Amino acid sequence: MRYSPSLNGFYPENNDYPNLPKDVMIIPDELYLELLNGQAAGKVITPHANKKGYPFLTAQPEPSSSIAPVTRPADTAAQSDATEKEAEQMKSSLRSYANGFINERQWPSRLALGRLSEEEKAAFNSWLDYLDALESVDTSSAPEISWPAQPVE
What we know:
A hairpin with a 4-residue loop joins strand 1 and strand 2 (9-11). This protein is mainly alpha-helical. Helix 2 packs antiparallel against helix 4. The chain has a three-stranded antiparallel beta sheet with strand order 2-1-3, with no helix packed on it. Strands 4-5 form a two-stranded antiparallel ribbon. It is built from four helices and five strands, in the order E-E-E-H-E-E-H-H-H. The protein starts with a strand and ends in an 18-residue tail after the last helix.
């Protein structure tokens, strides 16, 4: 996932954008999921957290007595569609990563030829289970999605 600290915005890597911000960086997909889940739980995504410049989650600030609390408008259909599309893109990105991981190790061919160790078979099955779990993710519930945990690499 691409992230812009100046705009505090995310840009899926599988989309071509004509004018990305100059400060855009790649962040790990796991961090992106953590940030989305945290935001859905009421936390705030804050830019420039660590030496790598990755964003982090903070608690909502307490309203000041001198400043009126900001209220968010209700989600519109367009916002909901955009969130669902983002979730579909994340699902596709996670699926592509998993398939690439499996294929880099040539597990399907090696299994067919009987050339996988028991440990490799177990790892291959874990990744296949992960792909099955990804397929069952309902992106229409975005951003309230519980993404499956990725197997250990």
